[in-house]
Amino acid sequence: MTGPARLEGRDKVTGTARYADDHRPPGCVHACPVPATVARGAVTAVDTAAALADPRVLTVLTHLDAPRLAHADDPTLAVLQSARVAHRGQYVALAVAETPEAAEQAAAAVRVTYAAEPHDVVLTEGHPGVYAPEQANGGHPADRVRGDFDAAWAAAEVRVDATYRTPPMHNHPMEPHAATARWEGDRLTVHDSSQGTAEVQRVLAALFGLERSQVLAVSEHVGGGFGCKGTPRPHVVLAAMAARVVGRPVRLALPRAHLAAVVGHRAPTVQRVRLAAGRDGRIEGLAQEILTRCSTLKEFVEQAAVPARVMYRSPSSRTTHRVVRQDVPAPSWMRAPGEAPGMFALESAMDELALACGIDPVELRLRNEPGTEPDSGRPFSSRHLTECLREGARRFGWERRGPAGRAEGRLLVGTGVAASTYPVLIGPASAEVRAEANGTFLVRVNATDIGTGARTVLAVIAAEVLAVPVDRVRAEIGRSDLPYGGVAGGSSGTSSWGWAVHAAASALARRLAEGGPVPAEGLSADADTRELVAQGAEYARHAFGAQFAEVQVDRDTGEVRLRRLLGVFAAGRILNPRTARSQLLGGMVMGASMALLEESTMDPEFGDHAERDLAAYHVAVNADVPDVQAYWVAEQDPHVSPMGSKGIGEIGIVGTAAAVANAVHHATGVRVRELPIGVRALLGRTGG
Ligand code: MOS
Known about the structure:
Bound molecules: dioxothiomolybdenum(VI) ion
Oligomer: single chain
Distance between the termini: 57 Å
Number of strands: 28
């Protein structure tokens, strides 16, 4: 869709916006993968006779006959290349048929025999396989040590030493992963549900031994991702493989039941936090030690201790990550990887410290604001946590809060606060902006809209630079043959693509200012920000926020209900208030969901996550979030992009769970250190 930006929403609500699975090229056939039913071992035989007996079935691919792929730098994409099974649910065969039903039936009829081996899927402290990785996700050093934590701990007047746990969680976007692939000679076109087609193009080209120019990847509209579409997933490789074998276009839409195993998830964490402080609440030592796990296929270390390197002043600090490789599906990005689970622990511990010192939790955070980024010593490009805490407290009515919550009949009511943070990530991009002879403008950049309104905000940026009404600007995005743009991830999209659009629009504006009419073929300017985005690295660049929650806990049943959630964020300049508010609210709702509902459970016998659908994996619905409000403070940060934006996609989920847990403690006196906070944690402990 390349209509004016404001029509993008209309396309979505009227159903004309096309998602990956809406593409059905002529002659298109259907594929359905077969998941492994053991958690570790090898495929010893595949009997496809029953599946192939159906004349509608074109083929069943297995590791024995599937096309050979070139070496995959992501081992989860080496599909059907070996007999090894690294986790339950990993694909071991692929049925291709004339109809979706026939493909599904064929997949179910494939008989796979395994040599199963004992599997290891339970994360325990003291697991013999625990090791110290070099890096955690995001390229952060796994360990950082500053000052002498042990000495600070020994000398402290007040100590908090607590261990927090977060379960595995799954992204579950509304639109499950889907791809349609077709070959024309040696040219491959895929419509994929992806957060970034440049990477889909790069990876498919590498796997199939093609030049990048031979692969076109398109993600016109995407129904959510939250990180699980941030890198190519097995479905798109399988679709391309099958299309090559059968010589027809192939569509492959994953059933939601498969998602838990093949598109990543948030790994569980065990987090020991120690805070050493004076009676005045000033922190002298901070330690956050993470244990997590990943799959045997590839290392992925949830960087949960990284926000502690940013948040609070402390003369000494020790932040570490340990990991164990197990026979489980490969974890990956889920909205604010690192910050979301890490700040649950740190911000809960801050609440425990506030209580131990008898200091208001807002005040405790103000007292511990650092002047420079603690671990790097770099100055902050700008840092408005104080403003967020103060404005949030005012809007929420925090000052009326007593030391303990109140009782309303059976309901125990309490309030809690937590801080939020997320780094400013900006990647290189290229863009073209063109003035048409008819007075309209066209923005071209390979951005991806995962439901955030990327077309609109890019048009807003160009319109502002060109000083024209936004409805005269249209944006062409979501194709790998457009000027380069990176993934819609890390809250970096708008700043990264937008910077290139800003630069190209500025160049175009200069040319237009030279005068003369726009020629019939239009007038265009382009820009590449590779060198520009390298600027500003001498500053620590982060967004901050503060979230306030009010909960009620049923004294008899232990049921927790969120009554109010209010967040104030400092995320640079807000470019499109309507869509920004929606993203912040969405993050906060997902944070509330993480606090109270979301949990995948590893079945130790089957070696699999038990939840396969939205009936078993609970996410917050409207009734769970009756009153959620997001605000922001005015922030002018001169050291980010020329738009002044910092990124808003993830910060809303950071700290939310701690605000809720802290409110539960205020209401009940029960400190819940393990998510989700459910009846299980509170039943029989609330005096009912
Ligand atoms: Mo996000 S987890 O950076 O897609």
